[in-house]
Amino acid sequence: MPTRRPISGQVVLVTGAARGIGAGAARALAARGAKVALVGLEPLELAKVAAECGPDAAWFEADVTDADAIAAAVDGAVARFGGIDVVIANAGIATGGTVRSIDPAAWERVVEVNLFGSWRTIRAALPHVIARRGYVLQISSFAAVGHAPFMSAYSASKAGVEAFADSLRTEVARHGVDVGVAYFSWIDTDMVRGADARRELGGMREKLSGPLGRTSPLEDCIDGIVDGIERRRRWVTVPKWVRAMILLRGPLAVLIDRLGRREVAEVEDKMLAAIEREGAAAVTAPVGAGGAADSAARERDRAIRTR
Predict the structure, then answer these.
(1) Measured between alpha carbons, how far is 109 from 111 in angstroms, rounded to an integer?
(2) φ/ψ bin of 9: left (φ > 0), alpha (ψ from -120 to 50), beta (otherwise)
(3) Where does residue 306 rank: exposed (0-12), middle (13-18), buried (19+ CB within 10 A)?
């Protein structure tokens, strides 16, 4: 059993901190005495979360795909708190759709935010984490292990960050830095609720029975993150059965393929009908409040560039 390391006094930088997992983790860590640097796209929400975290909290508006912006946020955190002990690379968005029908811009944006955003965040913060022999926690997903239909962008991005973190772990071990990967199934967040609200995207999930289709409380996820940081765990899994699936990922891939083939036709037909009515950009746009915030940020950037 890994030794617990007190969270109190550690400086933790959290991306995607305006809502959901990031905001919940920041609050829980601050309650244990951590100094938290919150990074995200929604300044009003970030300010609210920072206020809830207390005086040892700061927030920075930044798009994790913008290398200059995330570097500025890291520099701001270091200037405020003197260094960084822990990075939680959490910022992420999701959408769904078949490879042949999804809006290409939506597919590529999911990969850009989830994979490139994690790379740019960790790259910017890593010298400071190495200086303190700290810990990196990469938020991945059960989607990195089980590659379901209609989730090609999300699965590819989360498998990518898992591989990225695995490589990083070996590289930085000599510096006393530990690297963990968090694998979460369905968690009660804006992202999951947003996906469920899209009837065209929720068809497959509705057909899942047992633990594979169950949504876990956000609190379980936050407890896992806190424990993972305290013990500098290699894996953080919520629910617990996800750990077994990591070990059984070969047979799991075959099972998901067989089960998926039974339902794909019906769900794809509904999705294609919706795309015919509303357009691919609308039907397959990133889901939830976080997805909406990312889309709004891109629209602002485009408007600025075209002035």
Answers:
(1) 5
(2) left
(3) exposed
Residue 274 and residue 283 in contact, taking contact as beta carbons nearer than 8 Å: yes
Dihedral of CA atoms 111, 286, 93, 155 in degrees, nearest 10, equals: -50
C-alpha 213/C-alpha 195 separation (Å) is 13
How high is the pLDDT of residue 85? Answer: 98
From 181, 189, 188, select the one nearest 224 (Cα to Cα).
181
DSSP, collapsed to helix, strand or coil, labels residue 43 as helix
Catalytic pick among 154, 164, 184, 186:
154
CATH topology assigned to domain 11-302: Rossmann fold (3.40.50)
Please measure the distance between the N-terminal and C-terminal CA atoms of the chain and give it in whole angstroms.
Answer: 57
Q: How far apart are alpha carbons 303 and 301 in whole angstroms?
A: 5
Q: What is the pLDDT of residues 15-57, one digit of tens each?
A: 999 999 999 999 999 999 999 999 999 999 999 999 999 999 9
User: Does residue 135 have an active-site annotation?
Assistant: no
Q: What is the dihedral of CA 240, 245, 247, 249, to 10 degrees?
A: -160
How are the residues of the chain apportioned to helix, strand and coil, as percentages rounded to the nearest 5?
60, 10, 25
Beta strands in 129-273 (DSSP E): 135-139, 178-184, 235-238
Rounded to the nearest 10 degrees, how much is the dihedral formed by the CA atoms of 195, 196, 198, 202? 100
Q: Average pLDDT, stretch 121-143?
A: 96
What's the token pair of residue 61?
């508006």
CA distance 141 to 162: 9
Query: What is the enclosing helix (H) or strand (E) of 59?
Result: strand 57-61
CA separation for the pair 142, 182 (Å, rounded): 9
Residue 109, C-beta contacts closer than 8 angstroms, at least 6 positions apart = 93, 286, 294, 298
Q: Break the chain into its structural domains and give their ranges.
A: 11-302
